[in-house]
Design a protein that fits this description.
Blueprint (H helix, E strand, L loop, with lengths): L5 E5 L2 E7 L9 H11 L9 H7 L7 E8 L13 E11 L12 E10 L8 H17 L3 E6 L4 H10 L3 E6 L19 E7 L11 H6 L3 E3 L1 E8 L2 E8 L11 E5 L3 H7 L5 H4 L1 H18 L3 E10 L2 E9 L1
Parallel strand pairs: 5-6, 9-12
Antiparallel strand pairs: 1-2, 2-3, 3-4, 4-5, 6-8, 7-8, 10-11, 12-14, 13-14
Amino acid sequence: MWPSDEIVTAAGSRFLFTVERSGRIEDYVKYDDIRNAVWGDPDDYLSCPRNMTAENVWNEGGSLFIGVFREDEGGDFPRDGAHMAGFAYGFTGLIDKEIGYRDPANLVFYSQYAGVLPGIRNSGLGIRLKRFQARAVRDGLGISVISCTYDPLVGVNARRNIHHLGMEAAAYKTACYTGYSGHFNRLDIPTDRFKAVWDLDHPRPTADVDAADLLERGRLAVSSVLAEVEGLSGRRSLPLATEPIRPEGQDPLLVEIPFDFYAMLKETAVDDPEVRRIPLDWRLITRRVFLSLFESGWRVVDFCLLPDGDRKRDFYVLSR
């Protein structure tokens, strides 16, 4: 059974979550408009409105469109571009290409986009949107596995996917996109991604690990030191990735990533090559560590934010 529309309160407003069922071409223009408003990359567009209409599972295809709409002054939720605050989009795919569609257990739903407008981020809407999408996929499409990719260095996505939703970081994909910029990427930084898998029937449980104790004991495969640099907005402190040293023993490990990688990308977009390469160093160092640890049988079991004096620090927790 498809989920009913859901009304949630966040950031001082009410929002409607709804599955798009329209067969009108004009109703799909707003989806690419908001994609560009969120990601800021006009060249990374969705399909044209005519094709989006056809590919919707409610029409001829296997794609799922979900819209988030802000309440207007009269208490209604107009389903137009002016009131659209977020969206999710994905499509049905196959796990084993040889089996194809012959076995329903071979189906997976790939979540391509899920985002909300900048002014309402950090309000919990993103997590609510992913959970609404999950209900539509499981209860509507009858598919129990969702996959997606996300940047391993982006803590807000890691916290949502790994800690809150119980996804598994199943693989590390190296430089899997090219020519990808916008608000959240830079052309000179390789677009590495985690492939994350979400078993809707059996989400991965959060590990019972004291991450603060691991930090205190120096159980870090990647860490950081603060440095004063001349960034885009002036003099400021930024974390620099340190070369990894694998601690001995079987205890869980921490892999640090920069707190607010998106801000780091913008702040280091300067002419000074040493400053400009700070996010590249984070990418290359963490890439080597994740690939090495995964090959040796380590897996991500949680993600956490830890206070360290005046700093906020983000860490993956890995265990064998």
